[in-house]
Amino acid sequence: MGERMMRAVEIGEPGGPEVLRAVTRPVPEPGHGEVLIRVAYAGVNRPDALQRAGAYAPPPGASDLPGLEAAGEIAAVGPGVAGLSEGDRVCALLPGGGYADYAVTPAAHCLLVPAGMGLDAAACLPETVFTVWSNVFMRGGLEAGERFLVHGGSSGIGTTAIQLARAFGARVFATAGSEEKCAACLRLGAERAIDYRAEDFVEVLKSEGGANVILDMVGGDYIARNLKALAEEGRLVQIAFLQGPKAEINFAPLMMKRQTITGSTLRPQSDLAKARIAEGLRAHVWPLIEAGRIAPVMDSEFALEEAAAAHARMESSAHIGKIVLRAAGG
């Protein structure tokens, strides 16, 4: 018996979408506490593009293949796994390796696919719900009645953040870059969508009394502007830097208004930290999904070997919601 082989998409060398290439590789084996997933769909995310460009190395021990989330059926269970078995439909946060027909991940990072949801939609959940839950609620402490501002409201993260914040009783504001994207934010539950090409989000939020929590992935000159838009005791949560990680900030108003700047990245966190986020999702978010109060917004689907086209779509910023790749189980 030779090794079982699978299709995968690897990064040939650092560069643009065209460096992604379809290859054949051995199917990975699940280690202790891990499961092997027959991937139906893999989510496409900004960190995948950063990794492809050579700006985001996988953590030690992770697959060199891109892909941080997937949905499919469990094909094999490693030693020490309880509560999951072959054939279970799961969506999962991955340390890497999602752009393939099979991927391994810690069992504790898997969540059963919500009842009635397709695997294509389920593949859109992990990266965004883990990120939004851990940053907006665990770190940012967003509570019912508070004013929440999310930048990039039509992105995968944004569409999830709007729905979750609204479901937990916050007043939601979002920025986006076109009338169409603003309309999408309003449909999802934002009470105000701000077209950043035509309006200043600082003035809008100030007129409402300031934001209690801001989720930002822009960085650059948005950092100082975010602090101006925050209310007293406001919390700025930084999760990415589309405009760059450096800013000049006057800290005096931050002290006067007792503001907090925090942030995190998901991928380098420990397996235990990710397992704790998964527990929170199971308890607080999965019931909302199963009740139909939150659903992923899907932009488009590409075949696995069309990963380059999927990346080009994501980097054009024309998409609204999530992009997925269809693999063997899809």
From TrEMBL:
SUPFAM superfamilies: GroES-like, NAD(P)-binding Rossmann-fold domains
UniProt keyword terms in alphabetical order: NADP, Oxidoreductase
Segments forming domain Enoyl reductase (ER): 15-325
Keyword NADP applies: yes
GO MF: NADPH binding; oxidoreductase activity, acting on NAD(P)H
CDD domains named in the record: p53_inducible_oxidoreductase (cd05276)
InterPro entries: ADH-like_C, ADH-like_N, ER, GroES-like_sf, NAD(P)-bd_dom_sf, Quinone_OxRdtase_PIG3
Pfam families documented for this protein: ADH_N (PF08240), ADH_zinc_N (PF00107)
Protein name, as recorded: NAD(P)H-quinone oxidoreductase
Organism: Rhodosalinus sediminis
